[in-house]
Design brief:
Elements: E1 8-14, E2 17-23, H1 32-47, E3 53-58, E4 63-65, H2 70-73, H3 79-98, E5 102-107, E6 110-112, H4 114-121, E7 124-128, E8 133-134, H5 148-165, H6 173-179, E9 184-186, H7 189-204, H8 208-218, H9 225-239, H10 243-253
Parallel strand pairs: 2-3, 3-5, 4-6, 5-7, 6-8, 7-9
Antiparallel strand pairs: 1-2
Length: 255
């Protein structure tokens, strides 16, 4: 389905909690412009003295994030454009990693591809039962190379292998909780939001330096990710130009 709008990113700051929300009509997919805005707002909130905690969420109920823009994906014509396309999620993941503020993700619906990467880049995830996950990259001739470091860090190599190899299958929110991607799962959005409000209010009352120190501990050993994720983006950018992947994309999207 063609993407008919650029979507938007909005930010609110209430009682020390910066809530960064994104929306796109194509199941909250993230084209390059939205990824850049998301990265900018995460960095801005991290630098804001009045922000003690960041909440990352999307609008709507059915989908948290469908990943990257497929309309932009099929327009890639050279390696440089391919690397830049896949660098969008790399920059957002690194913005989450380097932010001095704890990031809580609210996952209300399905997450696919890069959307799973966003969940993995958060420090703590609250999800609804409807928030199943899938990595479909192998099915279209590429792989989840950019998001894999964040995801393996959360769920481990065996679970990552299952999620990647079973590329056409959704795994349930309960599965994601058991593997460590989600920290808490709630039966519906109403109870999810109640739990989110309670948690963020409590965390925002804690010592800011303690929260920053915890953030540093959580991301120990990832100092090379600027270079690592850039290298992974180059791999994906090269693969998307292959005859195999171009055929798979046309078949997958019926074009």
């Amino acid at each position: 389905m063609p993407e008919t709008s650029n979507g938007h990113v909005t930010v609110t700051l209430t009682d020390g909690v910066s809530t960064i929300s994104f929306y796109h009509p194509a199941q909250n997919a993230l084209p390059a412009q939205l990824l850049d805005q998301l990265c900018h707002e995460i960095e801005k909130a991290g630098d804001n003295f009045d922000t003690r905690l960041i909440v990352l969420k999307s609008e709507g109920e059915r989908a948290f994030c469908a990943g990257a823009s497929f309309d932009e994906l099929i327009q890639i014509k050279d390696k440089q454009a391919g690397a830049e396309f896949f660098s969008g999620f790399a920059r957002v993941i690194n913005a989450c990693r380097k932010s001095p503020k704890i990031i809580i993700a609210r996952i209300q619906g399905k997450a696919v591809g890069g959307g799973v990467g966003l969940a993995a880049a958060a420090d703590y995830c609250l999800a609804a039962e409807a928030a199943s996950i899938k990595l479909s990259e192998l099915a279209i001739g590429i792989g989840p190379f950019v998001i894999s470091p964040a995801l393996i860090r959360k769920i481990g190599l065996p679970a990552f292998s299952q999620l990647t190899i079973r590329a056409v299958d959704f795994q349930t929110a309960e599965w994601a909780n058991e593997k460590g991607l989600y920290n808490e799962v709630y039966p519906d959005i109403k109870s999810l939001d109640a739990a989110l409000d309670a948690l963020t209010q409590k965390l925002a009352s804690y010592h800011p330096e303690a929260l920053t120190g915890l953030k540093q501990i959580l991301w120990e050993g990832t100092e090379n990710w600027d270079e690592l994720l850039a290298e992974r983006a180059v791999i994906s950018g090269r693969l998307v130009l292959s005859e195999f992947t171009q055929h798979a994309l046309k078949t997958f999207f019926g074009r």
